[in-house]
Specification:
This protein is an alpha/beta fold and 262 residues long. The protein is built from 8 helices and 11 strands. Helix 1 crosses helix 2 and helix 6 packs parallel to helix 7.
Length: 262
């Protein structure tokens, strides 16, 4: 390990991730909450789009012993961090169930399939898309800019790819800013239905800072807004007990509406 990277512990030491220091995107609670949306005890295949160093996908594999996870990342630098993380002895119990693919989420058809992302092949697709839009102040760090800069029609592109590689009846899960809700709903269109949306609030009375979204491929069920999740106890920095369980892999945030799975 060098001075430009760190090895960070997640799920109270259950697994570790090699991440850059001072450059690139560093995973934290968002990745852990995203991973908690996968609640499935079957042998499943999971794709983590825009995986970065792989924290969310590793969190799924750490919690679910029968999950096979593919980390999809277009940056060779971040993909290298993910591969190094899988070589850590602390991650040996699940490393064989993960693989890393260097691919752009925007790829289509044969190019995407040639990279290993075959149509109708994953039970779950998870994503933490870039948050920033063109009006946000751009970072001078090229790795971080690549991770955070929002392309035009970003959700359309990412959700289109998610739909292509998800099995019928499979689940899309994502975390995003609340202001992205209209783009997400529009991009799901007739691809994914049965959307369940949960607003994440720092404390009671404070505005939401994130939304958690799940949806089912080819479902025609209606959209549902779930009860909000409150991150912190009143006037404290401690997480609420339930959010702490989600953040540390002791619980999953399962969908309220179960659908036929394939």
């Amino acid at each position: 390990m060098t001075s430009t990277e760190s090895i960070d512990s997640f799920h109270r030491g259950r697994f570790h991730v090699v991440q850059p220091l001072g450059q690139g995107h560093r995973s934290g609670m968002d990745a852990m909450l995203l991973a908690s949306l996968v609640a499935d005890e079957r042998p499943i295949r999971v794709a983590d789009l825009g995986a970065g160093a792989g924290a969310a996908g590793m969190a799924v594999a750490s919690r679910l012993d029968t999950a096979q996870v593919t980390l999809v990342e277009r940056s060779p630098t971040m993909a290298a961090f993910a591969r190094r993380s899988l070589e850590l002895p602390e991650n040996a119990r699940f490393a064989a169930r993960l693989d890393v693919i260097e691919a752009d989420v925007a790829w289509k058809g044969r190019e995407r399939a040639a990279a290993g992302l075959v149509d109708d092949s994953f039970h779950h697709v998870i994503m933490n898309p870039p948050f920033n839009d063109g009006s946000d102040r751009r970072t001078p760090d090229p790795l971080k800019a690549e991770a955070h800069a929002m392309e035009e029609d970003l959700f359309e592109i990412w959700i289109r790819t998610a739909c292509a590689i998800t099995r019928p009846g499979g689940q899309l899960s994502l975390i995003a800013r609340p202001e992205s809700i209209s783009e997400i709903i529009a991009a799901c269109g007739r691809r994914f239905g049965g959307l369940e949306i949960t607003a994440l609030h720092p404390r009671p009375g404070e505005n939401a800072v994130r939304i958690l979204v799940t949806a089912i491929k080819q479902s025609r069920a209606r959209l549902a807004f779930r009860a909000p999740l409150i991150m912190h106890e009143d006037d404290a920095h401690r997480f609420t007990a339930y959010v702490d369980d989600l953040n540390n892999g002791r619980a999953a945030y399962a969908r309220k509406t179960l659908s036929a799975r394939r």
